[in-house]
Amino acid sequence: MRETDELDDYLAQERAQAFEWTGQRNGDCQLFPIGWAERIGWPLAGASWRGRYSSEEEARALVDRRGGLVSAGCELFGPPRIGSAAQRGDVGLLAAEGWHLGMICTGSMWVIRAGDRGIRFCRREPDIIWDLRFRA
After folding, report:
1. Whole-model pTM?
2. Into how many domains does the chain fold?
3. What are 62-71's contacts with CB under 8 Å, separation 24+?
4. Which residue has the higher pLDDT, 115 or 75?
5. In this structure, are residues 109 and 122 in contact, taking their beta carbons and an 8 Å threshold?
6. Which secondary structure element, helix H or strand E, spans residue 122, and what is its range?
7. What would the DSSP string read from start to end of 51-67?
């Protein structure tokens, strides 16, 4: 399987899933990019997130305890991408209304977990990007 097929498969699977604050599957804006990372070679990416919250308030509290999503992302994925354009499969965070939305780069667009509608493609660039490089 080509590496780009893995992202297509992941997005097709997630497209059918509704948004949910369960802290289990990839149903919210935090776990959506973490689920992608797990799929391509970061098997423990969600270990400290999954099952640790069951509501937006609990998710925000967990994020606050970790110093915010940018800090948590750096702890998980290392330093962000600086000085080069995002690549297909990279993940990022977009600041929105006092929160950060997790995003995945398709190469030409970005994908977010969009409320109760599954996923949504957008052209808006995230504020911070991590180079995950396909490991699959």
Report:
1. 0.90
2. 1
3. 63/30, 68/100, 69/30, 69/93, 69/100, 69/102, 70/100, 70/128
4. 75
5. yes
6. strand 119-122
7. TS-SSHHHHHHHHHHTT
Residue corresponding to tokens 């689920």 = 35
pLDDT digits (tens, 9 = 90+) for 69-78: 999 999 999 9
Tell whether 36 is covered by a domain: yes
**The domain that contains 50 carries what CATH number?**
3.90.1720
Whether 91 maps to a domain, the answer reads yes
Spatial CA neighbour of 118 closest among 17, 13, 29, 20: 17
| H-helix segments, the chain | 3-15, 31-39, 56-65, 69-77
Name every residue whose Cβ is closer than 8 Å to that of residue 86 and which is 6 or more positions away in sequence. Answer: 92, 105, 125, 126, 129
Both tokens of 56, joined, read: 């937006």
Domain for residue 34, yes or no?
yes
| Domain boundaries, position 62 | 3-130
